[in-house]
TrEMBL record, chain A:
Domain 4Fe-4S ferredoxin-type: 13-43, 63-87
Name of protein: Glycolate oxidase iron-sulfur subunit
InterPro entries: 4Fe4S_Fe-S-bd, 4Fe4S_Fe_S_CS, Cys_rich_dom, Glc_ox_4Fe-4S, Helical_ferredxn
PROSITE patterns to which the protein is assigned, alphabetical: 4FE4S_FER_1 (PS00198), 4FE4S_FER_2 (PS51379)
Species for this entry: Nocardiopsis terrae
Entry EC no(s): 1.1.99.14
Reported cofactor(s): [4Fe-4S] cluster
Function summary: Component of a complex that catalyzes the oxidation of glycolate to glyoxylate.
TrEMBL record, chain B:
Superkingdom field: Bacteria
EC number(s) from the headed UniProt entry: 1.1.3.15
Molecular-function GO term, any one: (S)-2-hydroxy-acid oxidase activity
Keyword Transcription annotated: no
Domain FAD-binding PCMH-type: from-to ranges: 52-231
Keywords: FAD, Flavoprotein, Oxidoreductase
Name of the featured protein: Glycolate oxidase
Length: 450, 501
């Protein structure tokens, strides 16, 4: 289904030491590693981190220095794509982060920030509750004032980053019903992941996704009881939490008799495709890992699914020059790069531009921009320069976090751009809305202008 | 196999006292974050692409300018401290093997492209710039940088200069030496010297030529002026499948004999194809014992004629299928398969040795036969990837490092292959250099007088012997014992009372 070549063997059964040994030290992963691009030192490259992991593993020590370099890793998985030797860096870093979380005591300030972030992110209801204050904050105009003064930057770069990526809020669309019927003859019955960040901050992306699926003949099941998939926790080494969330998600979808589970958020998709590995890492038994594997096998990214299904609904023109950004957890995490481009190219009138250095992460990387704001900002700026050079008016990606990261950097650089999700662009084409709503003109659904 | 941090406690060296005293001065030169003393950080630099040889550098310096390089080297010269230059650390002969009592001078932060000069068809770059980045920068002007080692996306221009690196397209375009017009170097005594310049061809002794391929023993290149090559009007890549290596070899001979000059002629055997396929899904023909990748470039009409001719010649030599690719994406995939082959072998074998040797092209077929029988006799699998056009072999000797004695037997086979190269009138390295790995084999190629002359030449640049010592030329110290043992027991290694970082 993906363009990804075969992996030697699936991850969980192979011990950590074996996975480390797959690295032949060729360095092919260096040029697309964002931290290597930034700092040019071995310990902040995949090859160097793998070496540090080997030190940790073989001598059973975890030094402060090593933890710093593991924390510097964005988890973008560009190194997985570029490695000819098939090193499962995703499994390696997940295990390493788990060790760090269980064995290493971080300085107080860092601990507090982490506690805050992880008390918010996996919970859609808490994120949603945040919306009120944020909306008031933005409406009062304090937002742009605070931004201009650079006050936040001085108090706390981390809080400043949070403020910057927080999306502008508009009235949310009505919540999706539990069952969205297919338009015309039913071709499939699929589940839809709502996601915590997506559900709370970008509900219109979910609405667009459900509509596109329905227009293509899918009956869409949207279980109300679904929670967070746990990807953010898993990618941050909070394995027990991730495993609990994964189990709940498995239970919810197991009973819904869906053929596939469609995911429109890259980070969630890449996490859910590895539920089995996460549960194995957490020490869950065989039975659970088998259930997890069965569920993971059903998980597909929206674009992957639509290309497989083949188009049925008519595409209407969206005459616009558009740049597509590969969200790392879609391109590197799931090997999905061809499908979104194929879908976009099929939209009449749409002109697709490629970003330079498309393999390099934009710095958003889940919660990374909260923990390492300076690095995240520098990467965002370099991506923004690339995006500006394409002359595109609209930036599309399969992950809202990425779009916001790049768009806010472009805004700071004085070349604002509209951003949208692939699902919204398809939705606009299928419904014949034209480019205006995507560019933030004429109201309606669609993108935000930053 | 490769990333092993395993070592004896003795090897957990502290920065020797003499060197530790220099650290504050190094920090003043390179900045706080430009000097690494933390042990776990230093250890990530313990090897280049050849992980069999390992040694923890005493200290790592990461200069960003020529002036900083000059100051670091002057400091080393003043105190008689050895230094080892390192680019991207992809070398395959342990040329960048660190010195336990020395400074590892890394150019990874000197990666600015200073100038693309299409009028004079050249580019000026810092040494840490990746080979492929020159091409990326020159492409908008219709140019590229021709030498293309398989590691081109990561290896540094400085490393390429030091190793005189080659690549698939060197058959037509020549090695690095033919593309370097000028160098700014810092000599082992800390002088900044210009060799050559933008204008090609200077008179007098060819010091530029001597520096290219000197493996860091004559100084550090701090700025490199390279020639850019006009990108051809048309490029077509052919992929031809054969049922035997012999048949493939015959096709290579036929192509060259017909007076066609392809830009590249590469051959891979079934094992290498299997590895590449597993790594990058490059869609090579199934069931082939040998695959030939031939690239033709030039004016469109000429290329089209050559494609027809080469296709016929392959068929006549027994090819069971030839496919041509002229689209950029399809061609890129074919090359990705070829260029991933070394590292991809990690997928089909727990460990392996990349060998590098040269034989006259006419001896290729016989050589391959001999390698096959060596492999059969020893029970050690050998995958073959090679620049068939110029007789540069890269046998990959596969073994399981968990099996007792396997590594030694693999070493033996690998050594025997080099012996065969010499026996056939070839050489012990085509492009990966001598480094530490093959220094002790130099006497097999050169007599004492030649080696002494080399040494005199080297001493003229480096009288103190601090520039990448124990590399390139054999020394009793190096050739008497294994390098990883040496790092732990050297008398200068500070005892417990030395300051630890
Ligand atoms: C998978 C793989 C494929 C490869 N394919 C090829 C190939 O097709 N052709 C080929 O020729 N090689 C190939 N190589 C070998 C290697 O990439 C080249 O030798 C390359 O030129 C090394 O560059 P580097 O920057 O990594 O240098 P390093 O490994 O860091 O150093 C190599 C040598 O150069 C010296 N050096 C580095 N920088 C400087 C400087 N600025 N001034 C002076 N001396 C310096 C070092 O001291 C050392 O002796 C391959 C390696 C790998 C891992
Ligand atoms: S995941 Fe991304 S940041 Fe981390 S080592 Fe790999 S390429 Fe670098
Ligand atoms: S590309 Fe793969 S094998 Fe090569 S250094 Fe990176 S992780 Fe190791």
């Amino acid at each position: 289904m993906t363009d990804r070549p075969t992996d030697p063997e699936p991850g969980p059964e192979r011990p950590f030491g074996d996975l480390l040994d797959d690295c032949v030290h060729c360095g092919f992963c260096l040029p697309t590693c964002p931290t290597n691009v930034l700092w040019g030192q071995e310990m902040d490259s995949p090859r160097g981190r793998i070496h540090l992991m080997a030190q940790m593993h073989e001598e059973d020590v975890l030094t402060e220095t090593a933890v710093g370099h593991f924390d510097n890793c964005l988890g973008c998985l560009a190194c997985v794509s570029s490695c000819p030797s098939g090193v499962a860096y995703d499994a390696l870093i997940e295990h390493t982060r788990h060790r760090v979380e269980t064995e290493h005591r971080r300085p107080l300030g860092e601990r507090a920030l982490r506690a805050t972030v992880f008390s918010l992110f996996p919970y859609r209801s808490r994120l949603r509750a945040l919306r009120g204050p944020l909306r008031a904050y933005q409406a009062s105009g304090a937002s742009s004032l605070v931004r201009r003064s650079g006050l936040l930057e001085r108090i706390s770069p981390a809080l400043a980053a949070m403020e910057r990526v927080a999306p502008r809020l508009s009235a949310p669309p009505p919540p999706l019903p539990e069952l969205v019927p297919a338009v015309g003859e039913r071709r499939a019955r699929v589940g839809l992941l709502v996601g915590c960040v997506q559900g709370a901050f970008f509900p219109e992306v979910n609405t667009a996704t459900a509509r596109v699926l329905a227009l293509e003949g899918c009956e869409v099941v949207v279980p109300r009881s679904q929670g967070c998939c746990g990807a953010l926790s898993g990618h941050s080494g909070r394995i027990a939490e991730a495993a609990d969330l994964a189990k709940r998600m498995i239970e919810v979808f197991e009973t819904r008799r869906v053929e596939r589970i469609v995911v429109n958020s890259a980070g969630c998709g890449s996490g859910m495709k590895h539920f089995d590995r996460t549960l194995a890492e957490a020490g869950a038994g065989r039975a659970w890992t088998n259930r997890a594997r069965a569920l993971s096998a059903k998980v597909v990214d929206l674009t992957e699914y639509l290309v497989d299904l083949g188009p049925r609904a008519a595409r209407h023109p969206v005459p616009l020059r558009v740049a597509y950004h590969d969200a790392c957890h879609l391109s590197h995490g799931q090997g999905v790069t061809r499908q979104p481009r194929e879908l976009l190219r099929r939209i009449p009138g749409l002109e697709l531009a490629e970003l330079p250095d498309r393999e390099v992460c934009c710095g958003s990387a889940g919660v990374y921009n909260l923990f390492r704001p300076e690095a995240a900002e520098e990467l965002g700026e370099s991506k923004a320069r690339g995006a500006a050079s394409t002359g595109a008016r609209l930036l599309v990606s399969g992950n809202p976090g990425c779009s916001l990261q790049i768009a806010s950097a472009m805004e700071r650089a004085g070349s604002p751009v509209a951003v949208t999700h692939t699902a919204q662009l398809l939705d606009a084409s299928l419904r014949g809305l034209g480019p205006d709503p995507l560019l933030g003109r004429g109201g309606g659904s669609g993108a935000r202008r930053l | 196999m490769a990333t092993t941090a395993r070592r004896t406690p003795d090897d957990l060296v502290r920065t020797p006292a003499a060197l530790a005293a220099l650290v504050p001065r190094l920090r003043r030169i390179c900045g706080e974050d430009g000097v690494l003393t933390d042990l776990s950080q230093r250890r990530t630099y313990e090897s280049d692409g050849l992980t069999r040889h390992r040694s923890t550098p005493g200290v790592v310096a990461m200069p960003t300018t020529t002036a900083q390089v000059r100051d670091v080297i002057s400091l080393c010269a003043e105190h008689g401290v050895p230094y080892v230059p390192r680019g991207a650390g992809t070398g395959l002969s342990a040329g960048a093997l660190p010195h336990a009592e020395g400074v590892l001078l890394v150019t990874s932060r000197m990666r600015r492209i200073l100038e693309i000069d299409p009028e004079n068809e050249c580019a000026v770059v810092e040494p840490g710039v990746a080979n492929l980045d020159i091409t990326r920068a020159a492409e908008p002007y219709g140019y590229h940088y021709a030498p293309d080692p398989s590691s081109q996306q990561v290896c540094s221009v400085g490393g390429n200069v030091a190793e005189n690196s080659g690549g698939a397209h060197c058959l037509k375009y020549g090695f690095t030496a033919g593309h370097v017009r000028g160098l700014e170097i810092v000599t082992p005594s800390g002088e900044v010297v210009e060799l050559g310049g933008k204008a090609p061809g200077a008179h007098g002794y060819d010091l530029l030529g001597a520096f290219v391929g000197s493996e860091g023993t004559l100084g550090v290149a701090t700025r490199v002026t390279v020639s850019l090559t006009r990108s051809p009007q048309r490029t077509v890549t052919l992929l031809s499948a054969f049922t035997s290596l012999d048949a493939g070899g015959e096709a290579v001979g036929a192509i060259i004999a017909a007076g066609v000059l392809p830009s590249a002629v590469e051959m891979m055997d079934a094992l290498a194809v299997e590895a590449a396929e597993a790594a990058v899904a490059c869609d090579y023909p199934a069931g082939a014992e040998a695959v030939l990748v031939v690239e033709l470039d030039g004016p469109a009409a000429e290329v089209d004629a050559q494609v027809r001719r080469v296709t016929e010649l392959c068929a006549a030599s027994g090819s069971f299928g030839t496919r041509t690719a002229s689209g950029a994406e399809e061609r890129a995939l074919i090359w990705k398969g070829r260029k991933s082959a070394f590292a991809a072998v990690g997928r089909i074998s727990p460990a392996y040795i990349v060998q590098d040797g040269v034989v006259p092209r006419t001896a290729l077929a016989e050589m391959l036969g001999r390698i096959a029988s060596l492999s059969a006799e020893s029970g050690i699998r050998v995958a073959n990837v090679f620049h068939a056009g110029d007789g540069n072999l890269h046998p990959l000797v596969l073994f399981d490092d968990a099996e007792p004695g396997a590594a030694e037997r693999a070493e033996e086979v690998s050594g025997a292959i080099l012996d065969l190269c010499i026996e056939h009138g070839g050489s012990i390295t085509g492009e990966h250099g001598v480094g530490v790995d093959k220094a002790c084999k130099m006497p097999r190629m050169y007599d004492d007088t030649s080696l002494e002359t080399f040494d005199l030449f080297r001493r003229a640049f480096d009288p103190e012997g601090i520039a990448n010592p124990d590399k390139l030329l054999p020394t009793p110290r190096l050739c008497g014992e294994r390098p990883e043992v040496r790092t732990g027991v050297h008398p200068l290694v500070a005892s417990g009372d030395a300051e630890q970082f």
